[in-house]
């Protein structure tokens, strides 16, 4: 069974000002997709804390790490900055697929920033912090993640000679 972790980056959710709905949607959705959930964290919008949690997930060999929140342009939105330096192979097509899927429902989806890619065997995807973005992100994860996991395991491609 593939292992997953979810990180919500939100000062307000961290302080208990509002409920972390997007993180809960991801938790339930990833379980439905067959992932064992290793952790669900709610962190403040701080690069160091987000980065540290991502490093821990990579070190622990998590197969899929999904973040929610912190992908906008406010001064507090720093999730891509915490994530990008830790990605070894960028996969911008994942976020392009999310924007294409969501655009008709939410035109401002094109304003979302994020990073996606792989490090070691961990697939990392930044999603916006709304419940709708979490639901749409699960659609894209369902479409693409198993193929990515297969490639990371060496099952889909043979090494070049």
Question: Can you walk me through this structure?
Answer:
- By secondary structure, the protein is an alpha/beta fold.
- It has a single domain, classed as Molybdenum Cofactor Biosythetic Enzyme, Chain A.
- Helices cover 42% and strands 20% of the residues.
- It is built from six helices and six strands.
- The chain has a six-stranded mixed sheet with strand order 2-1-3-6-5-4, with helices on both faces.
- Helix 5 packs antiparallel against helix 6 (131-152).
- The longest helix has 22 residues, at 131-152.
- It is globular, with a radius of gyration of 15 Å.
- 40% of the residues are buried.
- The mean pLDDT is 95.
Quickly describe the structure.
The chain is of the alpha/beta class. The protein is 42% helix and 20% strand. Residues 5-148 form the MoaB/Mog domain.
The count of helical stretches stands at 6
CATH architecture label name: 3-Layer(aba) Sandwich
The main sheet comes to: 6 strands, mixed
Beta-strand fraction estimate: 15-25%
Count of strand segments:
6
Domain count: 1
Helix/strand order, N-terminal first:
EHHEHEHEHEEH
Shape: globular
Helix content: 40-55%
Structural classification: alpha/beta
* Strand order in space, largest sheet: 2-1-3-6-5-4
CATH superfamily: MoaB/Mog-like domain
